Amino acid sequence: MSLPRLGGLALVLIMGSLDASAQMSKSVGWSSDYWYRGISLSAGQPVFQGTLNYDFRDGWYAGASGSSARNAKGAGVAQAVLFGGVSKRLDAATSLDLGAHVTSLVDAPSLAFTEIYAGVIRQSYSLRLYYSPRYLGEKKQTTYIDFNTAYSLSSSWYLMLHLGWLEAMSVERTHFSNRYDARLGMGAYVGFWNYQLSFNKVRSSEPLTVDAANRWVLNVSYSF
């Protein structure tokens, strides 16, 4: 059985094990651009997004998210993500995070891919390493290093920083562009609303064939 099918099966089993001890959180949002690891998955157009997450008392979690997006021809499509994992405390301020997610586009099954990840979460920052055997339908194994941090300015306002590096592990790297992406911005909580304005930047080893211009992105989400 392939890793994508194993990943999907594992996530379905986690979702099927929900019980009264699970805490559910939901959010819906709007973004001026679906910026993902240095490229736009919405051709620079606004998107609507939603997430459903379950947290269990023993550290396990599972959920699903959906977003509108656009394919290479600019047509509107839907993206779905299933995710699950476990977070275990190493000490009072540090947790180990292990998990996987399966991502697919409704009208492009060939672009479905699975990633597994391991990382450390400590207070205001997180660091994770992702591995995919077939990233976004490419016949390439990839790794992605993901770093995120936030700095509180007040009870409502905060600064945020994201740094990422995507690299192909295959010997044959033709037609695949290794790249780094960065995001620096400011956010504010107003009740159950979260507003974020960030500048997103990308640099690649080869010219990208998708929309990857550096740009400002506005995100608005509501949690309930």
Automatic annotation (TrEMBL):
Keywords: Signal
Signal peptide: 1-22
Matching InterPro entries: CHP02001
Pfam families recorded: Gcw_chp
NCBIfam families with a match to the protein in the record: gcw_chp
Protein name, entry field: Outer membrane protein beta-barrel domain-containing protein
Native organism taxonomy: Bacteria, Pseudomonadati, Pseudomonadota, Betaproteobacteria, Burkholderiales
